[in-house]
Design goal:
It is built from 13 helices and twelve strands. The chain is an alpha/beta fold. Bound molecules: nicotinamide-adenine-dinucleotide.
């Protein structure tokens, strides 16, 4: 594998740490993409990668995504991510996560971890036994617990901003909202939208789950294969990504797409394709940042009220992105990237002068609050 070439190709990262401990079977990679705005925060994914190179490319791609997400969301955080190579159902041990925690600790707060696909609160508590630089731990240990209600609240705020932009109204009463996926995020979102008086169209590949949510929200359950193409005012994808491409875009019958799923566009150019046919797309990494905001608050000493104050900002973040897109005649996803890059460049330069001091302040905040 051409190591440095791969790193340069996938985002020119500040630091990549290879973690290896054969006693406990740990093989992991931590990637710190950019710390211009603050310490790099991003979860640890455990996955059975086909090759070491696949793992490296994944961690490089995901950590760069975290830089953009934090920056576009107005958070004082940089972007990082970690991957552990292995089968999360068979290969997890306490020793593995503690050894991983020692690597996280060695970075002294430049990288802060959390749970992600394949890792759980329990795993993060093993990491926490070795380092304070971990978020998303249980409430009993001073953490914030499950982030999905905050992600869903942020998505609600994003739907409100998108409806304001497209239909010039502040009310969701009577709006037809189609939700794909009623798991952690989708089910909470359905409850919030029901309270706002929206009419819900719901689908999940788990039929029973869809029906349970529909029963308590007066929703209509439809087939999962047609949910994306339902006639509605807002389409809220809350399942998996890679949804919008040359084949699906012409079949859409909603003028707004605003949902919590990650990586909804198959390629960046599909954001432009949506703009061309007048569909307002809320960039996924901006509208679904509520979970990240929630763990960010954990760093300062957790309070649910402050977490909600952050998720409310998703409303203004999106309106600002829509206004950049209109002014510059670009897609909303490009406008979100531009907002992130501008902030990294402006605030990053300012902060550079004080980096040593800022790092120490982070350290103090973290240790004092736990
Ligand atoms: P989850 O696994 O709890 O829920 C996903 C749901 O989607 C499940 O009920 C599943 O049955 C359903 N589903 C899968 N494929 C489907 C399909 N084709 N049609 C209909 N339903 C389908 O996951 P989650 O935590 O709710 O996350 C949902 C999305 O939001 C993911 O893309 C995730 O990356 C993203 N996200 C989640 C959070 C969070 O706080 N949980 C934060 C940011 C982004």
């Amino acid at each position: 594998m051409a190591l440095f070439e791969t790193i340069e190709k996938h985002g020119d990262h500040e630091e990549v740490v290879i973690c290896h401990n054969s006693d406990v079977g740990l093989k992991a990679i931590i990637a710190i993409h950019n710390t211009a705005l603050g310490p790099a925060l991003g979860g640890t994914r455990m996955w059975n990668y086909e090759s070491d190179e696949d793992a490296l490319v994944d961690v490089l791609r995901l950590s760069k995504g975290m830089t953009y997400k934090a920056a576009a969301s107005g958070l004082n955080l940089g972007g990082g991510k970690a991957v552990i190579l292995g089968d999360p159902r068979k290969q997890k041990t306490e020793g593995m996560f503690r050894a991983f925690g020692q690597y996280v600790n060695s970075l002294n707060g430049r990288y802060i971890t959390a749970e992600d696909v394949g890792t759980s609160v329990d795993d993060m508590e093993n990491v926490y036994a070795e380092t304070p630089w971990v978020t998303g731990i249980s409430k009993e240990l001073g953490g914030s617990g499950d982030p999905s209600p905050y992600t869903a609240h942020g998505v609600l705020m994003g739907i409100k901003a998108s409806v304001k932009q497209k239909y010039q109204t502040d009310s969701l009463k009577g709006m037809r909202v189609a939700i794909q996926g009623l798991g952690h995020v989708g089910a909470h979102l359905a409850d919030y939208l029901f309270e706002e008086g929206a009419n819900l169209i719901l689908a999940d590949i788990d039929q029973e789950r869809a029906q349970t949510v529909a029963d308590r929200t007066n929703g209509k359950v439809v087939d999962p294969s047609t949910i994306l193409f339902e006639e509605c005012d807002v389409l809220a994808p809350c399942a998996l990504g890679a949804l919008f491409d040359d084949k699906t875009i012409p079949q859409l019958r909603s003028k707004v797409i605003a949902g919590g799923a990650n990586n909804q566009l198959v390629e960046d150019r599909h954001g432009e394709a949506l703009r061309e046919i007048g569909i307002l797309y809320a960039p996924d990494y901006v509208i679904n940042a509520g979970g990240l905001m929630n763990v960010f608050v954990e760093l300062e000493g957790y309070s649910p009220e402050r977490a909600l104050a952050h998720t409310r900002k998703i409303y203004d973040n999106l309106l600002e992105i829509y206004s950049i897109a209109e002014r510059e005649g670009i897609s909303n996803n490009k406008a979100a990237n531009r907002r992130a890059e501008d902030r990294i460049s402006q605030i990053g330069k300012l902060r550079q002068k004080h980096t040593g001091r800022a790092q120490r302040v982070w350290g103090t905040l973290k240790v004092d609050n736990r």
